[in-house]
Amino acid sequence: MTRHKQKVAGGRNVRLADQIQKDLAHLIQREVDTSRYGLITLSSVELSADYAHAKVYFTVLGAEPEVAQKVLDEKAGWLHAQLFKLLHIHTVPTLRFYHDPQVERGIEMSRLIDQANADQKVLDRDGVD
């Protein structure tokens, strides 16, 4: 019986994290100036077991991650207050923002693969093995 309760609690944690991610993404889209701070996308939200803290992972295009993180940290209190209005739960977590470098790594890996393929085509064309 305890296993079942753990699964239910874990499911609630995931659902709440997903809802927080969705609501934060909407708020950030409306409130953060992309011309100054880049296009910020939330990649995931991890909640503590007691729902008191949320690690919010983001990616950014068109700006330095440090700049985007600074604006998110500055708006964290306001975003928390807005979540409190949107979510009808007793405890709205404190928000901590962390840059997620996965998108940038993916872009860099893709660029390297494209470069390797282009180099290979040149070698194949020139008949070099």
Oligomer: single chain
User: Based on helices, strands and strand pairing, what is the structural class?
Assistant: alpha+beta
> How far do the termini sit from each other?
64 Å
- SSE arrangement, N to C: HHEEHEH
- What sort of overall outline do the alpha carbons produce when their principal axes are compared? elongated
Number of helices: 4
The overall pLDDT, averaged over residues, is 85
**Strand elements, count:** 3
Strand content: 15-25%
| Helix amount | 55-70%
- As laid out across the biggest beta sheet, the strand order is 1-2-3
The largest sheet is:
3 strands, mixed
Radius of gyration: 20 Å
Q: Which segments are poorly predicted (pLDDT under 50) over 5 or more consecutive residues?
A: 1-8
Short description:
This protein is an alpha+beta fold and 129 residues long. It contains 4 helices and 3 strands; from the N terminus they run H-H-E-E-H-E-H. The chain is elongated, with a radius of gyration of 20 Å.
Topology (elements, then pairings):
Blueprint: H1 2-31, H2 34-37, E1 39-47, E2 53-61, H3 65-86, E3 94-99, H4 102-125
Parallel strand pairs: 2-3
Antiparallel strand pairs: 1-2
Helix pairs in contact: 1-3
Description:
With 129 residues, this protein is an alpha+beta fold. The protein contains four helices and three strands; from the N terminus they run ααββαβα. The chain has helices spanning 2-31, 34-37, 65-86, 102-125; strands at 39-47, 53-61, 94-99. A three-stranded mixed beta sheet has the order 1-2-3, with helices on both faces. A hairpin with a 5-residue loop joins β1 and β2. α1 (2-31) crosses α3 (65-86). The model is unreliable at 1-8 (pLDDT under 50).
